[in-house]
Amino acid sequence: MNITIKRPAFAHTDKKESDTKIIETLDIRTQVALESEDQKSIITIQSDPANAFDDIEIALEFCTSISVGTDCLHPGHKAQEFALFKLNSARNVIEFDAASKIVARCYMLKVPSEMTDKDAEADMANRVRDRVLDNGSSPLAGVVAVFRDMLQIERQRAEDMAMVNQQNPHANFFTGSNEEINEIIKLGGLVLINSGLGAGKTKENLLPAFEEACTRKVSPLFVSPRRSQIAPMKGDPRHYTNAGPEGFSAPGVVGVSNSVIGLPAFEWHRENTKMVIVDEFEQMLTHNASNAIGRGKLTERAAITAGTIEAIKKAAQDGTAVLADALLSDYTVTKLSKALGMTVTVATKTHCNFAHNINLHPTKAALIATAQAMLEIGKNILVISDESHNPRKDDLEGTFNTLNKSATGESITLDGDFFGNAEKSYFVSNLDLNLKSYQLVVASTVLSSGVSIESDHFDAVFVIAAGTVLPTEVIQSTRRVRKLKETHLVFTTHKRKRTNSVGLVFALMASKDLSDNDDYNQENLDKLWATSGVQDVVERVAYENGMRTNYNNRTLMMAEALGFTIKRMSANEADEIRAKAAMKEGNEEAENARIDRILTAEDISREQADERRKSDQMSRGQEYQIENYELREFYKTNTLDVDLIKADKSGRQRKQIAGLRMGVESAVRNLSAFDANKRKVIRKLMAVLDADLPAIMRGGSAIITKEHAKSFAEWTVIKRNKVTVGGKSTTASQAYNQAFDGRRISVRQATRSVISVLREELGMSVKEHKKDSWIVSVSNTRRAYFDMHMNGVSRLMEKFTKEDEAARDKASGYYDPTTGHDIMKWFEQTRASRSSATDSSWAPGMAFSDLMEALNKKADRDEIFMIGEIECRVLTCEETKPSVMKYRKSRCCA
C-alpha cells in the first residue's frame, strides 16, 4: 500500500484516495515508525518548507521518500541529493552551516576526476536555492566559500605529498645544473636530489657518484626498491646477485634494500661504506614498509627500515648519503631530518619542466577503444598498468590479450619475471633499443619508475591505474617515454576506506604479527612498539593510507601541482561496446590460462613451498606451484580440477570459508591475535542477528531484520563495548575494523554494512524476504567446499545420509567442544597441525568412510576417555541430532 504522511491543519485524520492512503498527523516521526511496521507499505513524507529540514532526517532514518512541492527524493537517491535538499531547506544560519559542509564535501569528491572546480561551482549555482538567511548572507555564496576552502586545503595536502614545501624549516634548498649538483655531492653530508621527472638524476648524478666512490674504494651501496630498476646492471660484478657463500668482494654493491641491508653477505660493505646512494627514495620507503619484506611481519619490515635509516645516517656523518626522487614529499623530508638529527639539502636541477598533458578517459573501455584504434592503423603504443598480475588474478594478461588482437605487429609483455630472468638481461640492459621491435608493449609497474625511454618509437602511452600502487607511481608512469607530451589515463579503482590513524594501524599490524592471541597483551605491544623501526613502519603505512584516500582526485591534484594539465576525454558508445566485448573475451582467455597453469604446475610439498617463499625472487612458475599447493592444502585434496579453482574465485572463497569456520567451530586451535579477534566479532555478529551459523552450514537458514542490523551497529559504535583478545582490550569499533580489513559501520547505514559483510566477507546468500527483512543461507556449493576444508572428505554435490552427516559433524569437531580422543587426533591431522593426542591409532590421511565405520563401532561401546581434565565420551549418531546438540550446548555453556 502507498501511504502519504503529512501535517494537517487540525487533528489527526485518515483519508484514502485511489491507491494511496493519506495520513494527517502532527507527530510525523511516530506515525512513520508505526507505518513502517507494515513491511509492504511504501511511505512518502509530504513536507513543507518550514519543516523539511527536520523531516529529511526522519526520511533518512526510516528509508522513506520525502517531497516538498515539486521536489521529491527516494531512498535510492545519492547522498549529494539529500545534502542539497537539506541545504535548500535550512531555516537559519546554524542549519545552513551544517548542511553546507556536507554539500561542499560531496562536490569536492568529484573534483578534478569528474568535473573541474568551475563546473562544480556552476552546478551549485543551478541547484542551490539562493535567498537571504537570517544573518543577511547568501546561501550560494556561503556554500561556494566553504567548497573553495575545503578544496584549497585538499590541494595543499596533495601538493605536499608530491613536492617539498619551500618553507620547510628542516631543509636547505639548492637549484643548479646537474654538474653543480655533483659538486654539492662531493662536499659530503646528506643530499636529496629532487629534480623533476626526466631530469637525468640516475644517469647524470647517481651513477657517476657511485663510480667515483668505487674508484676511491669507500665501499658504496647503490640501493633501489625494485630489482627491475637495477636489472640493466645484472651483468656487472657489483650486482648483489653475484654474492657467493664466501661473501662479496666487489668494490661496491648494487642491489635492493632487503638484500643489501638484510643479508650477511654484505655486512662488511655496510660496516665500511662511506657512501649510500638510494634511487627512488620514496618508493624504497614504501617497499620497506610493505608485505614484500620477508613474510610481511612487522618486525621484519622494521628491521629493514631501521637498517636502511642507520646506513644512511652513518654515511651522512662519515661520508656522503645521496637520496633521489622526483616526487619527494614534504612529509619524508621532515621525517628524515628528525630521524638523522640534521638539516637536509634538497637539490633541484634548473629549468626542470613538468609540462605534460593527461587525457583522462571516463572508463577503461573508452581507453581500450582508443588504443585499439591506434593499433589498427599501425601506431606503436606502450601500456603501463598496475592491474593484478599473479596466480590468483591476472587482469594484466587480460588487457594484453584484448589489445593484441588489434595489433598489426609484434607484441610483448614486460613484468617482474621478465626483468628477473637472467636470460633476458641483454634485452633489459638495452631496453630502449630492443623495444623498437614491438608495436604493442604491455608492462606492469616494472616500467613505472627508474626507466627512461628516450627514443621516438612510441606514438602514445596508456596508463591504467587500478589503485594497487601509490598515486606518485601513477604520475611517474606517465613520463616514461620522455619525448611524448601527453599520456592517456584511466582509473579502474574501487572506493575503499583506509585508516590513517597510527594507533589503529599498529593494532592491526600487531595482531597479525603475534602468532598466539595469548601474546596479544599490553606488555608485549609496548615491547613491539619500542622495537627499532616499528614506529617508522607504522607511521609510513598510516601516511600512505592517507595518500590513497580519495585516490583518483588525490592523484590528479598531485599531477596538477606538478604542472600537468588534465583534459577530460569523451567516449564513443559504439566503440565502448566493441571494446567491452573484446575485454570480456581477453579476460576469459587470461582466466583459462591462469587455471591451466595452476593445474599443470608441479605438485610441491609444504617444505618446498616454504623454501620458495623464503627466496629473494620467485619465477612465475614457482608462484603457480605455491598457488597449487595452497589450494590443495586448504581444500584437503590431492587433486585439483577446473571447477574447484573457479569456485575459489581468486582466493576469495578461501577467505570466506575461513571466516565461516571461525564462526562455527568450538575446537581449540592456536589462533593469531588477528584471527582470534575476527572470530569474536563474527560470533558476536551471529548472536546479535539471532542466526545459528552451525545450523545454516547444515543447510538451514535465518531471517534477519533491519533492527538486528541496527543493534549490531549500535554495539560497534558504543565506546564502552570492548573485545578482549589475550590480555588486550579494544573498542568494538576497532575490533570490527580489524576483523574486516578496514571496514566501517554506522547506525544509519547498518543494514547495508551488515549485508555487505555477510555477502563479501563470509560468502553467504542474503535475499530479500519482506520489507526490512532478509533470508540468510549458504549455497550447496559453498557448503560442499566448506566441508572439504573442514574434513577433507566431501566432494561437490556428494550426497550424504543423515547418519553420514551426523558422523561427519561429530568428526569435524566444530559443533561440540567435547570431542573424542581419537576423533580429535583425526581432526588435527586433517589440518596438518600438531595434536595433543599422541597415542591415537588413526593414521594421517585415513579415508573418511573407514573413519565413520570405526567411529560407529566406538560409539556402540560408549567409551569414556579424557581430554585434559575433561571427562568425555564419543557421541552416538542419535545424540548428534540438532535438537540433542542444542540441549548439550546449553548444558555445556551452563
Polypeptide structure, described:
Helix 29 packs across helix 32 (732-739). With 894 residues, this protein is α/β, with parallel strands linked by helices. Among the domains are: 2-153, no CATH class; 171-349, Rossmann fold (3-Layer(aba) Sandwich); 356-493 and 549-590, P-loop containing nucleotide triphosphate hydrolases (Rossmann fold, 3-Layer(aba) Sandwich), CATH 3.40.50; 800-893, no CATH class. It is globular. Strand 26 (765-770) and strand 27 form a beta hairpin. The two termini are 47 Å apart.
CATH homologous superfamily classification of the domain at 356-493 and 549-590: P-loop containing nucleotide triphosphate hydrolases
Helix run count? 38
Q: Strand count, sense and closure of the main sheet?
A: 7 strands, parallel
What is the radius of gyration computed over CA atoms, rounded to a whole number of angstroms?
31 Å
Outline type:
globular
CATH architecture of the domain at 356-493 and 549-590: 3-Layer(aba) Sandwich
Which parts are unreliable, with pLDDT below 50 for 5 consecutive residues or more? 793-800, 808-849, 858-894
Strand adjacency order, main sheet: 7-13-8-12-11-9-10
Which fold name is given in CATH as the topology of the domain at 356-493 and 549-590?
Rossmann fold
Distance between the termini: 47 Å
What fraction of residues sit in β-strands? 5-15%
Mean pLDDT: 86
Number of strands: 29
For the record, the CATH class of the domain at 356-493 and 549-590 is Alpha Beta
Helix proportion:
40-55%
The computed structural class is alpha/beta
